[in-house]
Design goal:
Layout lengths: L15 H9 L8 H14 L4 H14 L5 H5 L3 H8 L8 H19 L4 H6 L20 H12 L7 H10 L11 H6 L1
């Protein structure tokens, strides 16, 4: 139990940033291509790092990547990559920066084909399973996150492996892995 008297998933109680994110965003449905493009991008940047690092840099990421406007980001060129590599406010990883540009171009192509990222991503939402009782019961990936990963890769997206996609599914509310005794669960009941 936290000092505020609420029971949270263990990871969600370690810092004020985590508490706010856990209590108001994580596991809640996210729709819209801009919002989903942002979440997928941030999950890719998180790979190998603490989510707290990404969470604290989220505003800077939005600024650096044109508020996640795929049309704008798709126009980025090598000079933009160099600009972003020099931006201390974000995570400076060339592969992840280039992946974001590639993914923006894939999203533009998806739109040109008459599809949306929202429809594609949400088509992989699994049937709700029972709530986990411990964090050990929360998977790192699932058949659905593997299928979503494959579908995105087939559309030209990169840096969207099944573990990253499962984290995105959690962040976007396709799955809700709040533990059974978490206050968020009782608030929804």
């Amino acid at each position: 139990m936290s000092e505020d008297g609420l029971v949270r998933c263990p990871w969600g109680d370690s810092t004020p940033d985590y508490r706010a994110y856990h209590d108001t965003e994580w596991g809640r449905p996210v729709h819209g291509d801009v919002a989903l493009f942002e979440r997928i991008t941030l999950e890719a940047f998180q790979s190998g790092l603490s989510w707290l690092t990404i969470l604290r840099k989220r505003v800077a990421f939005r600024s650096a990547f044109a508020e996640f406007d795929a049309i704008e980001v798709a126009r980025f060129d090598e000079s933009d990559v160099e600009r972003l590599m020099a931006d201390e406010a974000i995570v400076r990883n060339r592969r992840k920066i280039e992946a974001t540009i590639t993914n923006a171009r894939a999203l533009v192509d998806l739109h040109a084909a008459g599809d949306t990222l929202d429809a594609l991503v949400w088509s992989y939402a699994p049937v709700r399973r029972g709530r986990p009782e411990t964090m050990a019961q929360v998977p790192a990936s699932t058949p659905e996150s593997l299928a979503l990963s494959k579908a995105l890769k087939a559309k030209g997206f990169v840096f969207v492996g099944p573990t990253t996609m499962y984290a995105a599914m959690q962040a976007c509310g396709l799955v809700d892995d709040h533990l059974v005794d978490c206050h968020v669960v009782s608030a929804e009941s």
